[in-house]
UniProtKB/TrEMBL annotation:
<feature type="coiled-coil region">
    <location>
        <begin position="7"/>
        <end position="34"/>
    </location>
</feature>
<comment type="pathway">
    <text>Amino-acid biosynthesis; L-phenylalanine biosynthesis; phenylpyruvate from prephenate: step 1/1.</text>
</comment>
<dbReference type="Pfam" id="PF00800">
    <property type="entry name" value="PDT"/>
</dbReference>
<keyword id="KW-0584">Phenylalanine biosynthesis</keyword>
<keyword id="KW-0413">Isomerase</keyword>
<feature type="domain" description="Chorismate mutase">
    <location>
        <begin position="1"/>
        <end position="96"/>
    </location>
</feature>
<keyword id="KW-0511">Multifunctional enzyme</keyword>
<dbReference type="InterPro" id="IPR036979">
    <property type="entry name" value="CM_dom_sf"/>
</dbReference>
<dbReference type="InterPro" id="IPR010957">
    <property type="entry name" value="G/b/e-P-prot_chorismate_mutase"/>
</dbReference>
<keyword id="KW-0963">Cytoplasm</keyword>
<keyword id="KW-0057">Aromatic amino acid biosynthesis</keyword>
<dbReference type="InterPro" id="IPR018528">
    <property type="entry name" value="Preph_deHydtase_CS"/>
</dbReference>
<comment type="pathway">
    <text>Metabolic intermediate biosynthesis; prephenate biosynthesis; prephenate from chorismate: step 1/1.</text>
</comment>
<dbReference type="GO" id="GO:0004664">
    <property type="term" value="F:prephenate dehydratase activity"/>
</dbReference>
<dbReference type="InterPro" id="IPR008242">
    <property type="entry name" value="Chor_mutase/pphenate_deHydtase"/>
</dbReference>
<feature type="domain" description="ACT">
    <location>
        <begin position="284"/>
        <end position="361"/>
    </location>
</feature>
<dbReference type="Pfam" id="PF01817">
    <property type="entry name" value="CM_2"/>
</dbReference>
Length: 365
């Protein structure tokens, strides 16, 4: 059994380590301020500084995980450094990040996971509004959902890329846990209505069929909106996540009710800057091909020839004509890589239209 003397000695050691950690964080923050001064001093007249470098942050976080020796998990260590980096970046220039609101949505959780809690988050009412907010320069970046592992592509996001000239600067993968939540005036056995986003209702369909088969299911704009409604009602429940539950003071009746235990959503970071290679990147493009036999083979052949790994391909109706389609394609590699450049050049010669949405670091956390 540990003696009182040994316990006191360990606590003193922890206090000393905390002091050293705090001193090093402050030193890092001062260094970040020096970086900002150097950047500002080298700008040409009218040129705007670039403080946030997605490829640089991805490289730092990967090195953090590679040199981690435990006992703290790699992902947890990287999250600690993410918050340190977020605070230091805020000293240079606080980032403003638009997301699909209201407050408490998974999109906000994705924004905080990617940028850290020192950013200023701005809720938008619709995905297209997130695009417009960033295109207008009112926010530095935007966070939008693009696909769910259970329900597939988020078509509103794909369609918005057809209308706006923004770049993809990063991606976030968020593990999605859904909870059945009620307010303080609601009893679990008196629920007659369940609110949630349509995709969340679909992701919990089997669970709802088993436990609440006769209860009305009402689709709303977001899970946070569902939580807000439930707060003022006595006979309803919401399907939402931890942030919404905390924000609106709701109590979980049942946690983790999603049908698939690996349920995840991928979000994209959209902005107005091109991202240099990080060493582990993805590229996203939109391609429109002629409506003729063999068009799909012609589209995929350059990827096969250069041994490029496709990670996603989706089709959406084109705005240019009836029964014509565009392809959204994600693949591994950066557009600056020679093999990727060759693929893009081959596609551009055979495609009706080709739009590179951006190259960006693969999700680290």
């Amino acid at each position: 059994m540990m003696s009182e003397h040994e316990l006191k000695a360990l606590r003193l050691r922890i206090d000393s380590l905390d002091e050293r950690i705090q001193e090093l964080i402050s030193e890092r923050a001062r260094c970040a301020q020096d970086v900002a001064r150097v950047k500002m001093g080298t700008l040409a007249e009218g040129e705007k500084p670039v403080f946030y470098r997605p490829e640089r942050e991805a490289q730092v976080l990967k090195r953090v995980m590679e040199r981690n020796g435990g006992p703290v998990r790699d992902e947890d260590m990287a999250r600690l450094f993410r918050e340190i980096m977020s605070c230091c970046l805020a000293l240079e220039e606080p980032l403003h990040v638009a997301y699909l609101g209201p407050e408490g949505t998974f999109s906000q959780a994705a924004a905080l996971k990617h940028f850290g809690k020192a950013v200023v988050t701005r809720p938008m009412a619709a995905i297209d509004e997130v695009f417009r907010e960033v295109a207008a320069g009112a926010s530095n970046f935007g966070v939008v959902p693009v696909e769910n592992s259970t329900e597939g592509a988020v078509n509103h996001t794909l369609d918005s890329f057809l209308e706006h000239n923004l770049s993809i600067c990063g991606e976030v993968e968020l593990r999605i846990h859904h909870h059945l939540l009620i307010g303080e005036n609601t009893k679990a056995d008196s629920i007659t209505r369940i609110y949630s986003h349509a995709q969340s209702l679909a992701q919990c369909r089997k669970w709802l069929d088993s436990y609440y088969p006769s209860v009305e299911r009402v689709a709303v704009a977001s899970n946070a909106e569902a939580a807000r409604r439930v707060k003022g009602e006595w006979n309803s429940a919401a399907i939402a996540g931890d942030m919404a539950a905390s924000l609106y003071g709701l109590t979980p009746v049942q946690q983790k009710i999603e049908d698939r235990p690996d349920n995840s959503t991928r979000f994209l970071i959209i902005g107005n800057q091109d991202v240099p290679p990080s060493g582990d990147d993805k590229t996203s493009i939109i391609v429109s091909m002629q409506n003729k036999p063999g068009a799909l083979h012609e589209l995929l052949l350059p990827f096969h020839t250069n041994n490029i790994d496709l990670s996603r391909i989706e089709t959406r109706p084109s705005r240019s004509g009836k029964w014509t389609y565009v392809f959204f394609i994600d693949f591994l590699g950066h557009q600056a890589d020679p093999l990727i450049r060759d693929v893009l050049e081959r596609l551009s010669t055979g495609a009706v239209a080709l739009k590179v949405l951006g190259s960006y670091p693969r999700a680290v956390l």
